[in-house]
Structure formats: structure tokens, C-alpha cells
């Protein structure tokens, strides 16, 4: 481990020198990547120094305890602190998802359940927006299609942070949210008070930092323009401002109509398209290394039911991690951290186990 730590120390020092060079910051994309990696290594360096400091304190306490017994009282506390510091360092040394520091584009789509599903999709969006507010992140609605009774048929929201620490990245926290979210409650349209089950799908994509990061040929794009429409087909404006972009090689389709400007809708559509293409590339990499990565909690499979929200019992249950709590009301108000931390912890445990298997 000492050899790997030393190489990380060397990389940390090299990055420090690069980031001190004003020329590096002329390329914002490169500066962000270097900054994210520096923040990640900075945590490892500080954790290692903490371990070494505690080792020194413990050794000194043991030596002094031989001459003055009262110093022996400090030894158990120092041993406990050292064990915790070593565990933290070990976790930090687990190879991190390279996208953890990225911002995300989050999509929520109504599924089974008609109007109730659309209302639940709106509830999920508000939950994520409030969670983002608690984390100090910024949100931006990119596109939405409202349902007749409220809520959304589908909605796309960008979530951003100014932090360069990958451990505090938006993707590091929200990547576990992709999948089917099931709700059990009495719909507002139910006159008999019966509990219904419906679902909404969530997709999460890491956002591309710079357009050049994903190479898109204009010859690979089919771009259609049309008039925006609202609920019930009601015309929103009389110009062809809505944009639909099809990426021919992959078949990925992105449509935008929220803005009144065709140019703004096109820019938003390209932003989402790049994020989806980045996710598509990662899915191909994951498929090639499926055996190595199969244990991870993260998923882009929209068909996987990941969580149930039971309103009559005020219960939330994550079916992947086994997390269960009876505080659904506060979770829907944005208190999502404990649920997400259960996924992060399981992911870390799986990756630690995979490292142990690789070492054998």
C-alpha cells in the first residue's frame, strides 16, 4: 500500500503545480477535471497524514505509559481513533467512479397509473429539487410536459454543484436513483378511499462538461422543428420553436419545447443528447466488463423497481439496500440523505469485496 500511496502523493503534488499555472485555467474543461482529481487526492493525502499522526501519538503514549502509568488511559482512545482513520483511508483508496464529480441531468417520467402516476412524478421532482436545495446545489428545468390534472408526463432537470470534490458530486449521490419508483396511496381522483399502486420512472445521466468531450457529427443528426403544444394539444405559440433531434447511429431521440426560441431549445436538446451519449458509452463499457461491475448498486435500467413509497404507513423502502424507515413525509420534503447513504455504503462494500477477490 505504501507504494500506491507514494504514487498518489506524487500525483497530488504534480496536480497542485499544474493548477497553480494560470494557463491551465484558460481551458475550463481541463481545469475542472484536474480540480476534481486534486480534490479526490487531497482527501486521501489528509487521511493518510491523519493515520500517520495517530500512529505516532499511540507509540508515544505507549512509551510514556511504561514510565508514567496515567498515560495508559489515553491508549484505548488512540487505538480506536487509529482504527477509524485506517478504515476511512481504506475506503478512500477504493477506485472511484470517474463520473462522481459531474453534474447530472435527471429525468422523471410518468408510468403505470395514469394521472396518479403523473402527480407522483411531480412529487418526485419536488423531492429531488428540495434535496438539491439542502445540499446547496442549483437546479434548472430543461423540459417538461404537464399532465391535465397536474404533475408531469415527463420532466428533465439539470442539477449542478460548484464543488470540485468528487465525494460531494451530484452524480456521486444521485446515480443510484435510476429505476422504477413505486407509490402506494389513495389518489386524489379516488372517491372510495381505496389505495392504488402506480409508478414513475427516473433516469439519471452524468452531464458532459464540455461539448468537445462527446464527438457528435452533424451528419449523424436528424433535426426536426415543430410548434410547441401544451396539455390537451393547446398551442403554446405560433412559431416552429420546438426541436426534436435524433442521433441516427444510436437511435437516441431528444425533444425540447419549453423555450420560445428555437435556438434555445436546440441548445438544451444538444445538452441532453450529449449526456445520454455519455451514458450510452458507459453502458457499453459496463457490458464489456459486466463480471467486474455486476455487484454495483448503480443502474441505468429503467425497468428495475428500486423503491416503494407507502403513504398510508408513512414508509419508504429501498429494495436494493434493504433500507426502510417510517419518515416518508420528511423524505418527500427533501430529507433523502439517509436513503442515498444506504446505497453509497452498499456500493462501497461491494467494491471492497471485489478488490479482495482481485487480490486473491
From TrEMBL:
Modification note: Methylated by PrmC. Methylation increases the termination efficiency of RF1.
Pfam families per record: PCRF, RF-1
Sorted UniProt keywords: Cytoplasm, Methylation, Protein biosynthesis
Tree of life domain: Bacteria
Span of domain Prokaryotic-type class I peptide chain release factors: 227-243
N5-methylglutamine modified-residue sites: 234
Cellular localization per UniProt: Cytoplasm
Keyword Transcription regulation annotated: no
Main function: Peptide chain release factor 1 directs the termination of translation in response to the peptide chain termination codons UAG and UAA.
Family, per entry: Belongs to the prokaryotic/mitochondrial release factor family.
Name of the featured protein: Peptide chain release factor 1
Lineage summary: Bacteria, Bacillati, Actinomycetota, Actinomycetes, Micrococcales
Amino acid at each position: 500500500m505504501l507504494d500506491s500511496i507514494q504514487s498518489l502523493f506524487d500525483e497530488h503534488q504534480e496536480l497542485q503545480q499544474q493548477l497553480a499555472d494560470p494557463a491551465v485555467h484558460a481551458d475550463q474543461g481541463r481545469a475542472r477535471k484536474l480540480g476534481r482529481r486534486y480534490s479526490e487526492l487531497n482527501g486521501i493525502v489528509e487521511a493518510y497524514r491523519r493515520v500517520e499522526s495517530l500512529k505516532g501519538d499511540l507509540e508515544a503514549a505507549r512509551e510514556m505509559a511504561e514510565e508514567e502509568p496515567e498515560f495508559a488511559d489515553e491508549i484505548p482512545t488512540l487505538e480506536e481513533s487509529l482504527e477509524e482513520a485506517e478504515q476511512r483511508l481504506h475506503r478512500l483508496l477504493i477506485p472511484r467512479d470517474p463520473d462522481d464529480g459531474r453534474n447530472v441531468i435527471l429525468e422523471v417520467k410518468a408510468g403505470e397509473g395514469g394521472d396518479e402516476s403523473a402527480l407522483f412524478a411531480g412529487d418526485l421532482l419536488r423531492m429531488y429539487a428540495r434535496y438539491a436545495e439542502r445540499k446547496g446545489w442549483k437546479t434548472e428545468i430543461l423540459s417538461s410536459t404537464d399532465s391535465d390534472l397536474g404533475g408531469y408526463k415527463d420532466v428533465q432537470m439539470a442539477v449542478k454543484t460548484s464543488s470540485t470534490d468528487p465525494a460531494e458530486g451530484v452524480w456521486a449521490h444521485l446515480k443510484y436513483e435510476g429505476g422504477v419508483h413505486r407509490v402506494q396511496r389513495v389518489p386524489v381522483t379516488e372517491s372510495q378511499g381505496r389505495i392504488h399502486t402506480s409508478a414513475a420512472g427516473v433516469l439519471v445521466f452524468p452531464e458532459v462538461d464540455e461539448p468537445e468531450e462527446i464527438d457528435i457529427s452533424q451528419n449523424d443528426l436528424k433535426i426536426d422543428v415543430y410548434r410547441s403544444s401544451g396539455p390537451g394539444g393547446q398551442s403554446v405559440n405560433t412559431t416552429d420553436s420546438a426541436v426534436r433531434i435524433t442521433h441516427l447511429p444510436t437511435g437516441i431521440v431528444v425533444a425540447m419545447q419549453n423555450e420560445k426560441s428555437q435556438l434555445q431549445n436546440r441548445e438544451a436538446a444538444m445538452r441532453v443528447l450529449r449526456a445520454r451519449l455519455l451514458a450510452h458509452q458507459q453502458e457499453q463499457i459496463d457490458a464489456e466488463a459486466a463480471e467486474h461491475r455486476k455487484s454495483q448498486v448503480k443502474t441505468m435500467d429503467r425497468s428495475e423497481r428500486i423503491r416503494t413509497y407507502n403513504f398510508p404507513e408513512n414508509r419508504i423502502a429501498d429494495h436494493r439496500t434493504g433500507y426502510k424507515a417510517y419518515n416518508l413525509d420528511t423524505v418527500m420534503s427533501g430529507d433523502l440523505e439517509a436513503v442515498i447513504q444506504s446505497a453509497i455504503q452498499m456500493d462501497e462494500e461491494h467494491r471492497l469485496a471485489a478488490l479482495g477477490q482481485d487480490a486473491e
